[in-house]
Amino acid sequence: MNKDEILKIARTQKLDEGRKYINDFALGAVGAFAFIAISLMIVYKNIINESYGDLLSLLIGMVGAFCYGKFVLTSKKHWFILFVIFLTGACAVFIELPGL
C-alpha cells in the first residue's frame, strides 16, 4: 500500500490514532493512580484496625465503571456482563461485609 491508499482508508474509517493513544494513556494513568491511592488507604485502615469495606467496594465499583465505559464504547456484551458482576460485588461488599 502506498501513502495515498493508507490516508484514504484512514479518512473513511475516521481514525485518529494520536487521540486514541492519548485517551488510552489518560485512562490508564487515572486508573493506576486511583488503584494505588485506594490500595494505600485500605492498608492504612487495616493497620489502624478500622473497617475498610467501604474502600474495597469503591475499588470494585471503579472496575465496574470501567467495564461499563468499555461497553458503551464497544457495545460488546461481555463488558456489560462484567459490569453487572462488579456492581453486584461492590454492593455485596458494602452491604454484607461492613466489618471487613
From TrEMBL:
Highest taxon above the source species: Bacteria
Transmembrane segments: 21-43, 55-73, 80-97
Keywords: Membrane, Transmembrane, Transmembrane helix
Family matches, as Pfam families: DUF6442
Name of the molecule in the record: DUF6442 family protein
Organism: Sporosarcina siberiensis
Source taxonomy: Bacteria, Bacillati, Bacillota, Bacilli, Bacillales
